[in-house]
Amino acid sequence: MSIPSLHRRSVKAITGSIRPSVGRARQPSSTLSFASRFSRRLGGFTRLARGRPDPRLERTVHTAHLPCDRHRRRKDAGSHATICGMGVDEPVRERLVSAGVGLLEEVGAAQLGLRAIAREAGVSHGAPRRYFPTHNALLAAVAVHGFADLSERFAAHESEIPRVRIDRMAGEYIDFAARRPEMFTLMFRHDLLQGSGENLRRTTIPIYRAWADLVAGCVRDRAEERAFGLWTNLHGIAALVANRSVELIAPGIDLDRLVLGTVAQHLSD
Question: Are 96 and 140 in contact (CB under 8 A)?
Fold first, then answer.
């Protein structure tokens, strides 16, 4: 039996019994709509069997992964993840990471779920799993951007003498925690540093080693001990700044003077 014959007989078998006639009540609209849908689908399969693609299927394939209109209309100037800001041609992985960076300070790491990131990036909810096997892997990729920002801040003072450079870097560290508290907290989450797939320790250790080398050039003894002690003190201050505890504990404190005093205390011979 040919495919066209199969098509006609199948449609007739379904629609013939439900076609309204004089003196009989019309069948429910849900039944008619089912028959109509079945007929259209069977027609599409018939065209495929004959070697002619179904235009409805083509439209579905071409538009399935395009962002919906509400994502195109978004005008969030502070977001890295809008379609206008990134461009639809940007690789999906980078779009997801950029969306996470843009959302982080707005909603916080605790609310930075895969669905929220996918929605902000204008991709399907299943897209993140194709690039990041776990939620932590995506968060770690977001944290890498934070370390890149911090490294750029430190690099801006490379031309200064070591002692002045340490003061400037200490100030940048505290300022980063104040301006990007959620990113700062995310960057130093232990569960992300361990086995996230992004190898964050490979990013953090060089930053600390550069710091320790600077301190070694400014002191005559116990360089490693002093470098680590100064770093931990500054990190404690930065953590309190990031979680807004300084305003509660010591609301009138001068942070700049505190930071410079901490540096001087550890580096003085």
Answer: no
Domain at 140-268: CATH architecture:
Orthogonal Bundle (1.10)
The domain limits of the chain are: 91-132, 140-268
| Of 190, 203, 266, 200, residue with least CA distance to 234 | 266
Positive or negative CA dihedral for 164, 211, 108, 88?
Answer: positive
Please give the torsion angle defined by the CA atoms of residues 16, 18, 24 and 28, in that order, rounded to the nearest 10 degrees: -170
Q: How far apart are CA 88 and CA 66, in angstroms?
A: 9
> pLDDT digits over 99-140, tens only?
999 999 898 888 888 899 999 999 998 888 888 888 888 898
**pLDDT tens per residue, range 83-92:** 334 444 469 9
The C-alpha torsion from 155 through 158 and 161 to 164, rounded to 10°, is: -20
Query: Do 182 and 112 meet the contact criterion of CB atoms below 8 Å apart?
Result: no
Query: Do the Cβ atoms of 267 and 166 come closer than 8 Å?
Result: yes
Q: Which CATH number fits domain 91-132: 1.10.10, 1.10.12, 1.10.287, 3.40.50?
A: 1.10.10
pTM of the predicted model as reported, rounded to 2 decimal places: 0.65
